[in-house]
Amino acid sequence: xxxxxxxxxxxxxxxxxxxxxxxxxxxxxxxxxxxxxxxxxxxxxxxxxxxxxxxxxxxxxxxxxxxxxxxxxxxxxxxxxxxxxxxxxxxxxxxxxxxxxxxxxxxxxxxxxxxxxxxxxxxxxxxxxxxxxxxxxxxxxxxxxxxxxxxxxxxxxxxxxxxxxxxxxxx
Amino acid sequence: xxxxxxxxxxxxxxxxxxxxxxxxxxxxxxxxxxxxxxxxxxxxxxxxxxxxxxxxxxxxxxxxxxxxxxxxxxxxxxxxxxxxxxxxxxxxxxxxxxxxxxxxxxxxxxxxxxxxxxxxxxxxxxxxxxxxxxx
Lengths: 171, 135
Description:
The complex is a heterodimer of chains A (171) and B (135).
Chain A: H1 2-51, H2 59-65, H3 70-81, H4 85-103, H5 108-114, H6 120-131, H7 135-145, H8 159-166
Helix pairs in contact in A: 1-2, 2-3, 4-7
Chain B: E1 7-11, H1 15-25, E2 29-36, E3 40-46, E4 54-58, H2 68-80, E5 84-89, H3 93-102, E6 106-114, E7 117-123, E8 129-134
Parallel strand pairs in B: 1-4, 5-8
Antiparallel strand pairs in B: 2-3, 3-4, 6-7, 7-8
């Protein structure tokens, strides 16, 4: 009796599972088609930021490239990339500024302008917040550590790589 | 407790050519591209949705860790396809496969159902194998 019931129950669950997997598969296909399209549009907005980070950018302008409302773009961007469009823009600008400060002769004001900021004060305080030191201190400190002009010191990269490729351990 | 992986290395034959492949064909973004003292180029790329994991594209060269002989051996092993670059995830393996084929990426296996998902296998322009998996 128990065995028969179990077998019947098993059969019923298998049929149920099969039906469920068909529904799941169809929904998954529709979901992927939709997300793929959405991802492409979102990527277009993100690429627009990456290509124009040195220009003044507004959320409304960027969202247009993704054919989304600014608020929707902001939310989907954050969900997908783990950072807001503004956080992404700041990251790009600060990384570029770090590179320019070390490998170029530009003054801090020139760097500020070249990475898209109009106010030296707001650039400097943003840099300080992100990097932990002011642009001039960053340049002075890294230049002093490097044995070559306009090159990052080995301490700027993870020590296992510095040792592996340069034979230098951070002091 | 270790919480995540921040950097992993892929040995490549040429950083310039690998950068072109990972950026323009696979659609990765450049993380760092820095000139470091000693002539070393610190080059990292990452998939746009995961800036937390950077792939270091490095050339095996004679230096503190490699003798000239071992650097050459590693280079020839890369070309032979002895190394794997790992597993890249996609939300639609078939579609990504078609996009990458159109961009000229060489595949050694088209999308196929596996126990862990749909997987295609490709090769980068140095010779490293990698999987493209849809879970």
